[in-house]
Write a structure and sequence with these properties.
The chain is of the alpha/beta class. It has helices spanning about 15, 30-35, 40, 50-65, 85-90, 140-145, 160-175, 195-205, 210-220; strands spanning about 1-5, 5-10, 20-25, 70-75, 125-130, 150-160, 175-180, 185. Strands 3, 4, 5, 6, 7 and 8 form a six-stranded parallel beta sheet that branches. A two-stranded antiparallel sheet has the order 1-2.
Length: about 220
């Protein structure tokens, strides 16, 4: 651990993701975004998360085994679009809102808003609604982390270029450490995958999920 002017700063991955102060954050793996028959699938825009489902499930199993807090954040909309910003109204006018479009996705309380079965929450997990790409905006995410003594979160899921980039940057500015397992992230637009990772690497540690699990295991001994 690095000591700087009396402050202890994590240096190794093992220190950074110690289960005592780490949460696993599952970001937006929702039926409407990822599942066949979901809103995005109907619109021809389904996000293929198949390659990350297994490593995310492995991380979830390990988190629960090593007593790492699990938090799900899921984008949430209302049928009347009342949760959208003015900019979002403008942005979606030619997709979700045009005649014949499937309509709004991830509506609070619907099947499309639920987390996909392969990585669904378990009793004791925290599930938070979010209304903006940045998981800190308009939510109790920061409070939940602080109330539980969380200093680091490992973030996995979809929307790496849309929601994960601003969430990780915001977290760093608030003083949190972030770890982004490279094999557990997928963008909304595949063409933006590497661009998203460039930003994420600037603000988070990027390690394979197996290294995170091994770090948890080493601290549990």
């Amino acid at each position: 651990m690095l000591t700087l002017k009396g402050r202890q700063i994590f240096e190794t991955l093992e220190e950074t993701v110690d289960p005592k102060h780490t949460a696993l954050v599952v970001h937006e793996l929702l039926n409407d975004f990822c599942a066949k028959g979901g809103n995005f699938d109907k619109a021809g825009r389904r996000i293929d998360a198949s390659a990350i489902v297994k490593p995310v499930a492995n991380l979830l199993d390990a988190a629960r085994k090593y007593k790492v807090r699990v938090i799900y954040v899921r984008y949430t909309m209302h049928t009347d679009y009342s949760t959208l910003s003015d900019f979002d109204f403008w942005r979606y006018r030619e997709t979700m809102m045009k005649p014949g479009a499937p309509g709004p996705a991830v509506i609070d309380g619907t099947w499309g808003w639920e987390i996909i079965d392969e990585v669904k929450p378990q009793p004791g997990d925290i599930v938070l609604r979010k209304y903006r790409p940045d998981a800190f905006i308009g939510t109790t995410f920061d409070e939940i982390l602080r109330w539980n003594g969380i200093k680091t979160f490992v973030i996995v899921g979809i929307g790496s270029e849309v929601g994960i980039v601003p969430t990780v940057i915001h977290a760093a500015n608030l003083g949190y450490f972030c770890v982004a397992p490279s094999d557990c992230l997928r963008p909304t637009d595949p063409a933006r995958a590497e661009d998203a990772m460039k930003f994420i690497r600037d603000w988070a540690r990027v390690n394979p999920h197996t290294e995170v699990i091994n770090a948890w295991k080493s601290r549990a001994k």
